[in-house]
User: What shape does this take?
Amino acid sequence: MQAFSFKNPTKIIFGAGQIKLLGPELVADGIKHCLLIAGGGSIKANGVYEQVTDSLQKAGIVISESWGVQANPRLDKVRELIALARELQVDAILAVGGGSVIDSAKAVAAGFYLNDIWNAFRGSEQVKQALPIYTVLTLSATGSEMNGNAVITNNDTTQKWGISSALIYPRLSIIDPSVQFTLSFRQTASGAIDAIAHILEFYFANDTAKSTLAINAALLKTIVEMTDRLKLNAGDYEARANLAWAATLALNGTSGIGLNGGDWACHAIEHSFSALHQEIAHGEGLGVIFPAWIGYVSDRAPARFAAWAKEVWAEDSVSLALHKFRGKLEEWEMPGSLRDLGIKDPELPTLVEIILSGAPRGLGEVFKLSKDDLQALLVLAF
Ligand code: NZQ
Ligand code: ZN
Assistant: This one.
């Protein structure tokens, strides 16, 4: 097992009816005025907005609002929000939504103190300070509610890039699984695939961290089982709750302990899909590329892939496990190919260029994918 350091500063309040605790928590932290950031309106339709504003108003917190963060959030919106946060001189950012809203909030919190937030993504400015970040999660998928990552798309350059900083972990995240009853099964499954992918990014990178791998196998099985239950009943609270917590654990640091930092090639590849086509949900893109990647690289670390086949799918061969994995995604009616995602054949070279612009020397840890490998992999996934 590799040496590691682990710290996760985010406080989690979890359970049905817990949003009412938001106001008192902000008061306890000395917050007086927050900028509430939201997406396209789902939080108004499902009552989350009302619960949030009720709690804040009762606690005497001043709320300013900004709506319209899109799925696969954009840099131009982040810049607009930074200008607003500066103008209003808020003392905290509150994200109410899924990963896109939370990631935007993090970029705003850090960008508040920078010349230009994109510099932090390009590596030419360091995040040295950030406004306090609070979140009310409405979609379990990214783990953003309990990590220090933010992923934003620069539409001018078609780059969907991430930053990681200890300074942008949310101070508090409230996870009320019951607010996710209003998700479509497509969104639920897409979130589940993202959580599965986060664990898989770590799973094959090293096989000495047995305790982490045992936790990860259990999380993978739990995510599949809970998603199956939610396909039958979107209002199954226990399934929502277990999927939610598994998704948080999938990317809050614990699933990667002792595992070489993970592979992350599939994530970089998927980010090129949703950078080029903003209508592609991140989890759906991962559902296409991950099985193709497993097929392409599993020979490079056969013992690790065999362990995954056995522990997660109760199969003695990787190809049978891969067949079961694909079958599950099909059962969930997820896109099965790049074509299903709406990507056209002539776009494949563009995707390779986008991927390499973020990783000029190739990418991946289990197996380093070159430009030729990327081309071959995309053709396989097409
Ligand atoms: O816009 P609103 O109205 O909020 O609707 C959203 C959006 O249309 C809707 N939704 C959210 N909660 C709902 C709901 N609809 C009904 N009921 C609810 N309770 O769902 C749609 C998708 O939301 P979005 O926030 O985009 O989804 P997700 O949480 O999957 O976030 C995806 C983004 O996070 C990035 C992805 O690349 C993508 O940009 N990631 C962030 C990571 C991180 N910060 O650590 C890691 C991930 O690997 C990922 O890259
Ligand atoms: Zn992801």
